[in-house]
Amino acid sequence: MLRRLLHSIGSYLLLMRRTFARPQQMRIFRQQYLHELYSLGYNSLFIVILMSFFIGALLCVQIKLNVWSPWMPRFTIGYAMREVILLEFASSIICIILAGKVGSNIASEIGTMRVTQQIDALDVMGVNSASYILLPKILAMVTAIPLLVTFSIASGFIGAYVVCWAGGFLSLADLTYGLQHDYVPWHLWSGYIKSLVFAFIIASVSGFFGYTVRGGSIEVGRAGTNSVVVSSVLILFFDLMLTNLLMG
C-alpha cells in the first residue's frame, strides 16, 4: 500500500515536471487555453450560481430557526451567514462540487485520449503531450475558479436577500447591516488563496488519473471516479492546513 502510494506520488511529480515545460507553439497554446477556460469555467457558472443561491437562502433560514434567539441581535443572522460563505462555502464546498463536475470530465477526456492512443501519437510526433494537454487545463482552472468563487459569494448573498424578503422573518436593513458588520477583508482574500490551491489540485490530480489510464473504457470510468475521490480528500486536507496557516 505504502509502496503504491509513493509510486503514485513520484509519477505525479514527474508528470507535473513535464507539464510545466514551455509550450512549443504559443499560438496553439493560447487557443487551447481559451477553449478550456470556456469549457471548464464558463460552463460551470450556472451550477455554481444556482447552488450558491439556494445555499445562501438555506443558511439564512437555518440560522434564523436553529441558532438565533431573542437574546441575540437580529443582524447576527446576516453576520453568521456571511462568515460561513466567505470562509468555507464559496471556496471549499464549491471546489468540492467542481471536483465532481470538472474533475471527472478532465479525467475521462484525457483517459479516452490515452486508450485511443491519441497521446501516444503526440509522443511519437515529438510533442510534449503532458504540456500540450494538461497545462491549458490547469491554467484555465486557476483562472476560472476565483471568478466562480466571486459569483458564488454574490449569488449566496442574493439568495439570502430573496428568502428574507419572501419569508418576512428578517428585514432587509437588518440583513444588510449583518453582512457589513465587523467585516474583515482578509477573510475574502484567504478564500481566494485557498481557491487557487484547490483549482490546481482539481486540474492536476484529475489530469494525472486520466493521463495514466491503462486499459479500456472501464478503466477510464474508474479513473474519473478516483480523480473525484482523491481531489475531494486533498481539498479537505489542504483546507484544514491553509485555514490554520492563513487564519492562525
- What percent of residues are in strands? under 5%
Shape call: elongated
Number of domains: 1
Helix proportion: over 70%
The number of E-state strands comes to: 0
Main pleated sheet: none
Classify the secondary structure makeup into a structural class: mainly alpha
- Number of H- or I-type helical stretches: 9
Low-pLDDT runs of 5+ residues are none
Radius of gyration: 21 Å
pLDDT averaged residue by residue: 89
How many angstroms separate the termini? 34 Å
**SSE arrangement, N to C:** HHHHHHHHH
Task: Explain the overall architecture.
Helix 4 (76-115) packs across helix 7 (172-180) and helix 4 packs parallel to helix 8. The chain is elongated and about 70 Å long. With 248 residues, it is mostly helical. The model has no long low-confidence stretch (mean pLDDT 89). The longest helix is centred in the middle third of the chain and has 40 residues, at 76-115. The protein has 9 helices and no strands. The chain has one domain (26-247).
